[in-house]
Amino acid sequence: MAYFRSFNTPPPDPAVLKELTRKQNEMQQRIILQRPDFDLKLIAGCDSSFIGEDKILSVFVLLRYPELEVVEKVWHHGPVELPYIPGFLAFREAPNLLKAYEKLQQKPDLVMVDGHGISHPRRLGIATHLGLHLNKPTMGVAKKVLVGKYTEPATAKGALSPLVYKDEVIANVLRTKDNVKPVFVSPGHLMDLESATEIAMTCAIKHKLPEPTRLADHYAAVFKQEVK
After folding, report:
1. Which residues make Cβ contacts (< 8 Å) with residue 113, sequence separation at least 6?
2. I need a surface site. Which of 72, 88, 102, 167 has the fewest CB within 10 A?
3. Would you say 162 and 172 are in contact if contact means Cβ atoms under 8 Å apart?
4. Which residues of 2-29 are buried (b: 16+ CB within 10 A; e: fewer)?
């Protein structure tokens, strides 16, 4: 989700920036990219939506895999405690997402996040943040690129091309439906790119977005109306 600082907003506190950078550097050392060791039966999709400048609503939708039937949907609405700082958006989203996650009666084997995993300037998109906090396999499916270069994949469903940053493949640019814009699939934590891409493709039934994140995005809009 894009959230832009207005010209009237003061620049970030240098002390806050220094502390967030320290935390990112520490978290970066703990990222594990590997083929997941699980029997995937429950997959969760999650998304957050900001309400004004100081509130956030986060949603988790739990589905059976591979049937993709909805088992649970939960949400949490709360205040945002950190101002917007480019490159550190995950610190704004993660606390509320974790509170929503706690409400799930059953826990997923994998979390698919509407956002980036390691396809982030410092490898710490929201999917990676959640994976490190939960110590659980996570993956990101983003609608827009944050960093890196790629060649546009072919227009047919299933076509892909690598997203490269600093000589590393950090995501796959995946066409999930014929003649629609691609999505950017990246591992978050305890996940590898190949598995993440395969699962994203399996979950992309009829729409551009895979079902877990598509439904999370949908219910974020629904629950947002309830909050309002």
Report:
1. 45, 46, 47, 125, 126, 127, 130, 138, 139, 140, 141, 188, 213
2. 167
3. yes
4. eeeeeeeeeebeeeeeeebeeebeebee
**Superfamily of domain covering 32-227:** archaeoglobus fulgidus dsm 4304 superfamily (3.30.2170.10)
CB distance 211 to 68 below 8 Å? yes
pLDDT, tens digit only, all 228 positions of the chain: 433 444 456 678 899 999 999 999 999 999 999 999 999 999 999 999 999 889 999 999 999 999 999 999 999 999 998 888 888 999 999 999 999 999 999 999 999 999 999 999 999 999 999 999 999 999 999 999 999 999 999 999 999 999 999 999 999 999 999 999 999 999 999 999 999 999 999 999 999 999 999 999 999 999 988 887
Match 């003649």 to its residue by tokens: 179
* Half-sphere exposure in the Cβ direction for 40 (13 Å, CA): 23
- For residues 42 and 64, the answer to whether their CB atoms sit within 8 Å is yes
CA dihedral 128, 134, 138, 144 (to 10 degrees): -40
Please give the Cα distance from 196 to 125 (Å, whole number). 15
